[in-house]
Design brief:
Elements: H1 21-39, H2 42-51, H3 61-76
Helix pairs in contact: 1-2, 2-3
Amino acid sequence: MARRRPDLFSAYIGSGQIVDWERQDAAGFELLLARARARGDESMLRELTAIGPPPYIGSDWQSKFMTERRILGKRGGEY
């Protein structure tokens, strides 16, 4: 829309554009794993290794997803 009618816009602010969810999720997991290794955080490494990398499939996908997000929120936050 901005390309067709730039006269209607003075700025564009985007948030949360997801282009490739699986790729983004896999890259985030690898960065989180690297952070755990760099910190020598054995507990974090055990948890991440136990759930493995995304995509999470199967009957326990939600549990694995929530485990990763909990770790990210508590100990990995900013990639």
